[in-house]
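Dear colleague,

Following up on Tuesday's group meeting, I ran the structure prediction for the two-component complex that the binding team flagged. I've pasted the input sequences exactly as they went in, so you can double-check that nothing got truncated or mislabelled along the way. The C-alpha cells for the whole assembly follow below. Feel free to forward this to whoever is handling the docking comparison.

Inputs:
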Amino acid sequence: MRGIGIARAAPAMLAVSLCVSGIGAMAQTPSGPAVKIGVIVDRSGVVVSNSKGQQDGLAAAAAALNKGDMLWAKPPATSGKPGILGRPIEFMYEDSQSDPNRALSGARRLASNGADAIIITTVSPDMMQARLVCEEAKIICIGPSVAGIAIVRPPNNAYAFTLAPPFDIQGQELVASLKAAGYDNLAIVRDESGASKAQADVFKAVFAKANINVVAEETVPAGAREISGQLLRVRNAAPKAILNLVNPPVDGALFMRSYETSRIGAPLFAMGGLISQTETWALAGPAIDGTIAVDYAIPENSELKGFADLFRSMHGKDRPVLSTNIMPASSLLLLKRAMEDAGEPRGEKVKAAMEKITRFPAGFGQPGYTLNYSPEDHNGATNASIVVIEFAGQRPAKLFKYQPGK
Amino acid sequence: MTELTVIWEGLISGALYGLLGLAYLVILQATRTYNFSIGAFASFSAVAFAAWSGELALGAAIGLAVLSALALALITDVAITRPIAARETGGHLGVVLGLVATLFVITQLTQQLFGSRTWIGTPLLPGSLEIFGTIVSAHSIATLLCAFVMCGAMQLWQAHGRRGRLLAAVGDNWEAAVLLALPVGGIRAFAVGLGGAICGVVGVLQAGGGPVSFHGSFGLALVGFLALVIGGAQSSWGPLAGGTIIGLTETLGARIIGASAREYILLVVILLVFRLRPQGIFAKEIRE
C-alpha cells in the first residue's frame, strides 16, 4: 500500500518540486520593461580611467542585481527583488569628456531617451550642470565619486545626491594622517585644472586651522615635458611631506617619475584621485610605493568578496577592486532602494524616498559605515567614509596606521 | 637634482622645439605655408613609437614611427594643402584653416588607434650619468645631439647639396623658381616628406624621455611655430635658437617665479623679440 501511495505521489511531488524551482528561478530573474539608468562617462577627457572604473563597477553591480544578488545591501536594506522593481537594469551612456557643457547636453539626451535616473561618473562641474536636467525631469542624479559640496546645496539641488565626503572632511582626515605621521608642514603639487585648484584651496584652509604650514605650492602644467624648476622650488622649501594633487595620468606619471629622480625624499600623500587613476600606478613605477592616500575602500576587503569575485570574472582576474568600482555599485543599490520604496522609478516619490534612507550599508569606508540622507542633507557622508591606505607593490596594499574613528 | 638640471632640461626642451621649428621651416620653404598639422604628426609619432616600442625591436619601432609621420605629412599635403591652395585666389587663410582642422583629425585618429591612455616609450639609450651633481639621462644627451646634427646637416645640405640648394631657391623666391622651370613639385614632395620625418624623430625623442598621450598635438604645434618665429626663417639654426630660448624661458621661469607664470614670461619674451628683432634672430641682411 505504502509503495503504491509513493508511486502515485511521486509524479505530483515531481510536478510540485519543478514548479517550486521554476518559481524560484522566475523570482531571481527580472522581467518587464527595463529600468533605464543614464550614465555620464568620460571616454577621452581627464578622468577616463576613473570613469571606466566606475562603469565597470556599475556593470558588475547590475549583473549581480539582475541575478537577485543584493551584494552588501541584503534585505531589509533592499527588497531582495531582482533588478530594480523586479525589472531588469539597463544602462544608457553619454560621453561628456569631462566638459560641463557636454554633460548638460548629454543629460538632456538621456532624459529625453527615457532615463529613470542619471549616474555621473566624471567630475563635479559636470554634475553641477546635469542636476539641472534631473530637476526638470524629476529624476535622481547621483554622483558616486564627486566631492563638490555645492552640488547638493541650493539652488537646483532637489534631485542631486552624492556619496563621497566633501573636500573639507577629506581635508580633516588628511590633517589627522599628517599629524599621526608627525608632519606639521608640507608642499602641495597640483595640476592646472580648476578642480585641482579648488581642492587645494579647501585643503589650505583646513591646514591653516590645524596649524599645518603649506611651505610651497607648485603646479604641473598640462602636457609638460619636465618639471625641474618646480621640484627645485619644492626642495628648497624643505617640506616634511608632499601632497600630490596631480590627477591627469600623463602629468601624474611625470610628477612621480621626476620626483623619484629629484631625491627630495619627503613622503608623498595623495587623495582618492590617485587611487582612481590606475594608469598612473604603472607609469609611476616604484616611485608610487610608500604613498599614503586618503581613499574610501579597504584594500581586498573580505566582506566584499562576492562582489570582488564577480567583478574580476567580468573585468579581469588581476584587477584590484577599488573605491571607484564599489561606490558606483552603492549608488545603484541606493537607487534600487529609493525606487522600490517609492514603487516607481521616477518622480517626487523617489526623491522623497531617497531623503528618507538611513543606515544604508555603504560597502565602502570604515567597517560598518552606513549612508544617511535627509531633505537637508543629500550627501550622506561622514568622516567614517574615509580609509587611509598605503601603496606597496605599485598598488593600494595596506591600511595606514591612522584610521578615522580609531 | 641641482640648478644645472633646470638649464639642462631647458636645453632638451629647446632641442625638441627647435626640431619642430625646423620641420615648419622645411615645409614653409617648399609650400609657402605654415603647416600647423606638424604638432599632430609629432604627437602621432610619439604615441605610435611608445606603443610599438613595447612590441617590436627598437629600430623597427623608430622606423615605423618616423615613416608614419612622413606619410601623414605627404597625405596632408596632397589631400588638404594643394587642393585648397589651388582654389584660393589670395592669401592662405583657407589652407591654414584646413591644416588646423587636419590637426584635430589626426589627433582623433591617434586616439582611435592607440586609445586615451598614457604611454612611455623606450629610451634611445639606456642609463644616465652624474655631471656636477646633476643626473643626465643618456636619452637626453642623444636628444641634444640629434637636434644639433639635424640642424647642422640641414644647413650644410641647403648650402651645398643639389636638392638642398633647390629647396633654398624655391623658398627664397617661388615665382622665380617656377619661371626658371625648376622642379618645384618634386622638391615640394621631398621637402614635405622630410618635414614629416623630422616630426617623426621629434616624436621618438619625446616618447623616449617621458609620458606621452594623444593630447599633445596642440602644444607641439604652438611651440614649434614660436621657435621658428623667434629664431628666424633664414637659417636652419634659427629654429634651434628660437626653441632654446623658449625652452630655457620655460624652465628658468618656473624655477625663479613658478610654473603658473610660465605663459606670462613666455609672452613677454615673444613680445620683446617681435619688438626688437621681428624678423627673427637669424635673418638675412639685405643691402639697401
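The longest helix of chain B spans residues 58-87.

Cheers,
M.
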